[in-house]
Amino acid sequence: MTQPLVIPFKEGEARLEWLGLARAFEAGHRLPKAEIADTFLYRGGDTLLNRAAWIDGLGVAVKAATIFPGNAEAGKPAVNGAVNLMSDSDGTLAALIDFHLVTKWKTAGDSLYGALKLARPDSREILIVGAGAVARSLIEAYGAGFPEARFTLWNRSAARAEEMAAEIPGLRVATDLEAAIAKSDIIATATMATEPVIQGDWLQPGQHLDLIGAYRPDMREVDDAALTRARIFVDSFDTTLGHIGELKIPLEAGIIAKTDVLADYYTPEAFTRSEEDITILKNGGGAHLDLMCARYILEAWQAA
C-alpha cells in the first residue's frame, strides 16, 4: 500500500504563494458545490470543531480543531488539531498535512480572496485589529494582494501590539481605534471578542471590512449599525448564517434579513460594489476551504 505524504509546516509553506492560493479558491468554486458537515461541541469557553467536506473532482478533507483560549496563559497554542486529505477517486488517504499550515493559509487566504473581490484595488491603508497569530498571516496575505499597502495594528493590549510591531518592519501601532478606522481602506478584525469592537458609526464610505474572529454563536466583532450600513457578503452561506453570532444574532433579532446577505463565493458575479459602498465579508472558514487549501498545498508539494 502506498504511504500517504506527510507535509510539515516549514517545508510545505516554502512552496506556497498567496495569489496562487487565491487562484485555487477561484478554481475550487467552479467545481460542483461542496458537501459540508460541521459539528460543534462546547465546554465553557473551549470549542471542538469537526469539519468535513467533499468536492466532486477535488477530494475529501476531514479536519478536527480544538480551540482552547486559556492555553495562551500557559504559553501553548490556542488552536490545535489535524487535517486528512483523501483521494476523490478511491477514498485513500493522500496526505497528512500540518494542521497549522492549512489553518494559517486557509484563513488569511480566504480574507485575501474576499478583499480582491470587494476592496478597492487602490487600497493603501490596511488596519489589523487584534495582535494574535492571524494578524501576522493577514499582513503576509494582504501584502501579496495589495503590495503598496501600509499596515497599522490595533490591539486591546498596546504592549502586545508594540511587541509585534518591533518584529515586523514598517508595521505601525494605533492607540485610538476610531481614529485608525477613519484612515483605513481595509479593516480586518481577528479578535476573540464576544461583544462588538467596531462601531458602525465609525465607518467611512468606500471601506472594506473583513470579519474573521467570531466563530461561535455568542461572538461578534461589529455592531448592528455596521451591518445595516454595509453590503454584506460571506465566504459560505452554509457555514456562517446559522453558526456564527456575527450574523446569527442580528438575523434572529430582525436587524437584518437573509436577503441582506448578498452572496457567497459560489455566486462570484454578485460580488459587486460602487466606489462609495461599505462592504463586509464574514470569513467563516469552512471545511470546503480547508479542502481547497489542502489540495493546493499537496499540488504545490508535488510540483516542487
Count of spatially separate domains: 2
Percent strand equals 15-25%
Alpha-carbon Rg, integer: 18 Å
The structural class is: alpha/beta
Write down the overall geometry: globular
Number of H- or I-type helical stretches: 9
Mean pLDDT figure: 95
What is the number of beta strands?
14
| Helix content class | 25-40%
Report the top-level CATH class of the largest domain.
Alpha Beta
CATH topology of the largest domain: Rossmann fold
Would you kindly provide a written description of the structure presented here, covering whatever features stand out?
The protein has 2 domains: 5-103 and 288-303, ornithine cyclodeaminase, domain 1 (2-Layer Sandwich), CATH 3.30.1780.10; 104-285, Rossmann fold, CATH 3.40.50. Helix content is 32%, strand content 25%. The protein contains 9 helices and 14 strands. α2 (18-28) packs across α3 (99-118) and α2 packs across α9 (287-303). It is globular, with a radius of gyration of 18 Å. The relative contact order is 0.17. The mean pLDDT is 95.
Structural key phrases:
9 helices, alpha/beta, 32% helix, 8-stranded parallel sheet, single chain, ornithine cyclodeaminase, domain 1, 6-stranded mixed sheet
Question: Can you describe this structure in just a few lines?
Answer:
This protein has helices spanning 9-13, 18-28, 99-118, 133-145, 158-167, 177-182, 224-229, 245-253, 287-303, and strands at residues 5-7, 35-43, 46-55, 59-67, 79-86, 93-97, 125-129, 150-154, 172-173, 186-189, 208-211, 231-234, 261-263, 279-282.
